[in-house]
Design goal:
The structure is a single chain. This protein is mainly α. Helix content is 73%, strand content 0%. The protein has one domain: Helix Hairpins (Orthogonal Bundle), CATH 1.10.287.310. The protein has three helices and no strands. The mean pLDDT is 87.
């Protein structure tokens, strides 16, 4: 599995791709669990944790972007009379 440091170094696009792949893999694992052919039940938990980590990093980055936007002073447009 991917470590948190490695996830933080990834770009937003890379994180999105890993999230998509992990979500698809979790879906397949759930299907296997329902048909009782799951070799390693711990993989379900690992995939859920990885998805949570990725979403947390994405949320933190979005919050940081929002905070930067709020801190930038608004430029007043000159009025022409």
């Amino acid at each position: 599995m991917t470590k948190v440091g490695e996830l933080r170094e990834m770009s937003d696009e890379q994180l999105g791709e890993v999230l998509r792949e992990t979500t698809e893999s979790l879906f397949r694992l759930r299907l296997q669990a329902q048909t009782e052919r799951l070799d390693a039940p711990s993989e379900l938990r690992k995939h859920r944790q990885l998805i949570a980590r990725i979403k947390t990093i994405q949320r933190q980055r979005a919050g940081a972007r929002d905070q930067e936007t709020e801190q930038q002073p608004e430029v007043e447009q000159p009025t022409t009379s």
